């Protein structure tokens, strides 16, 4: 049976994804769980604690996935797909992180640390793909930083950008973000990897 703290996180994540963080209070979360607010506060003293714990959970899942053995075993397209599933699971963060970190200094600190760690992970992964002969070597560390920053900026903000235009959140938005990140990486692909990207883009064009 799922423990109470776990249930609170699962239900809170679902409510934040469906309704946005600002509109959801701890009373809404308690009501969805069929528990008293006092029982909820026994486990988490406020909504900020819940958000911080969900953020830590998201980053743990992300770092687990970015371990070197995965970048050795997966193709870039498979890697992109798995990452976007994590983005979708915690999508409210990518929609609302700018406003959330302005209101919560601790969350802002966690976010900054996450971005710095992701920059390092992305650079390490790219180097391993170069060693595997599936991405092109780069001419400088500045170029690697540019690629990592561009991919990270797109992947962490695409939901806010596309959903502001579409207005209706859906997995179609996820696919749009995935496609854009794939196209950003495409110029650096070589050999069979480029062929797999070409096939992806051809398939999209026929839909």
Structure described in brief:
This protein is mainly alpha-helical and 207 residues long. Helix content is 80%, strand content 0%.
Structure, described:
It contains eleven helices and no strands. The model has no long low-confidence stretch (mean pLDDT 91). Helices cover 80% and strands 0% of the residues. By secondary structure, the protein is mostly helical. It folds into two domains: 45 residues, Arc Repressor Mutant, subunit A (Orthogonal Bundle), CATH 1.10.10; 159 residues, Tetracycline Repressor, domain 2, CATH 1.10.357.10.
In this structure, how is the largest beta sheet organized? none
Rg, Cα atoms, Å: 19 Å
Number of domains: 2
| Rounded average pLDDT | 91
β-strand percent reads: under 5%
What's the architecture of the largest domain in CATH terms? Orthogonal Bundle
Q: Total number of β-strand segments?
A: 0
N-to-C series of helices and strands: HHHHHHHHHHH
Low-confidence stretches: none
Proportion of residues in helical segments: over 70%
Name of the CATH superfamily of the largest domain: Tetracycline Repressor, domain 2
Structural class label: mainly alpha
